[in-house]
Amino acid sequence: MDINVRLKPQRPTFETDQLDTSIDDLSNDGSDGNNDSNSSTNAPPNGHPDKVRPPPIASVDVDQLLITGIDNLESLKDLKQIESMALFKRLVDDLLILSDLVKKSPDLDLRSILFGKMGSNLVVREEFDDDNGSVESEEFVIYPPLIADSIAKLREKKRSTPYVELEQFKTKSTEELEVPLRKNSRIDSNFGALLSGDLTDEELRPVAGSYHINIDYSLCEQIVQKFYLKQVPALTISKYLERINRFLTPSPSVLITASYFLFNLAFNLRPENDQCVLPLQAPPESDGPIKMTYVDTLDVFRLILSVLRVSLKEIEDKNFKQAYYCKITGLQHVEDLLKLELSLLYLLDFHIFINEFTLTRFVFQFRVFDRNLHSLLRADGSTEQGELEQ
After folding, report:
1. For residues 256 and 385, what is the distance between their CA atoms, to the nearest angstrom?
2. DSSP secondary structure letters along 304-362
3. Torsion sign, CA atoms 162, 163, 168, 172
4. d(Cα 300, Cα 337) in Å, to the nearest integer?
5. What whole-number distance in Å separates Cα of residue 108 and Cα of residue 98?
6. If pLDDT is split at 50, 70 and 90, which confidence band does 89 have?
């Protein structure tokens, strides 16, 4: 496959953390409904009475959110916007850390970091005293509300599908085969076992499916070069994301979708089943080893703006004009934005389908990855993510 996307590395637009002066004179939010025009546009002034500055990302305790906060969510709608942004930043930090580890140790087992202890993601251990006074423990599989809700929806879908198929059979018998059913027909009784079927706990695991390796790794290495800058910006990732959050305020669903895209392109993965409710398993061994597309300080800024741009277009009805988005994210040329979007789509192999199951599943998928990575860092005495902040 030949891909001709000419995009030279550029110097970063932002050289300092003092960014507000570049947009003080803008007067509206740069949105134009579904219009994504290339015309010049404006942004909200700093003193806009209706524009509330979002809280800093550091105000969110991400560790606590990943440990217990997610389990307590009744719906993804309960996830606060700043919490979603904090999860997105945590993923970016994790990918930067892991890329550095892989560069130092190319034989690092990515499969175990991504999918190790996946089963314990939903396991709760309880301790109790037996009759002899000794303490014993027992493990239980308890689905958090987020997953339990998805399972209920999937089970309802499985229960309703046979009825739909039965009605289709009756219609076909009457209209196409010209064999009308008698009013006292008992054909429904032949489908009794099927109509009473349900999705058992044993069936949930096969339904979850697994990932598969996406397009070839060498091609990904070539495409990702389109995201490189000539030098590392002086702006930190936290400040960059807070700038985006202030002037674009992407919704939680956009941020989780952007995280999902970034995760998949970093590890060259593609989900086998879009209707899964449980975290996906590792790709089969026959797919070969998992390799990582490096996310470092030279390409991370353009990757961030690209996954957010594609997610905004896919999830939100309100699109921001090209020039406004470039002004906020630091792109020097409007023409570069389309090229970056196209490069991202090739990295994802154009697999950008998203539904509620996908986002719910990914939240727990990311938690497993984050736990395994930080367990490895603690075991090796490696530098924590705060010291690697860029």
Report:
1. 20
2. HHHHHHHHHHHH-S-PBPHHHHHHHHT-S-HHHHHHHHHHHHHHTTT-----HHHHHHH
3. positive
4. 15
5. 10
6. very high
Residue 139 host element (H or E): strand 135-141
d(CA 267, CA 109): 12
31 phi, psi to nearest 5 deg = -90, 155
Q: Of the ranges 76-90, 170-184, 193-207, which is most confident? A: 76-90
Grouping H, G, I as helix, E, B as strand and the rest as coil, residue 118 is coil
pLDDT tens per residue across span 181-230: 555 555 555 544 444 445 555 555 545 567 887 667 788 888 888 899 98
Q: How many other C-beta atoms can be found within 10 angstroms of the C-beta atom of residue 273?
A: 16
CA–CA distance, 17 with 129 (Å, rounded to integer): 57
Does 12 score more than 60 pLDDT? no
Cα–Cα distance for residue pair 307/258, rounded to 1 Å: 5
Domains (range + CATH), the chain: 20-33+41-119+209-388 (1.10.472.10), 125-202 (no CATH)
What lies within 8 Å, CB to CB, of 377 at 6+ separation is 97, 383, 384
Query: Alpha-carbon distance 303 to 301, whole Å?
Result: 5
CA 174 vs CA 163, 178, 270, 390: distances in Å: 17, 5, 43, 68
* Amino acid at position 285, single letter: E
Whole-structure pTM value: 0.74
Contact 268, 215 (CB under 8 A): yes
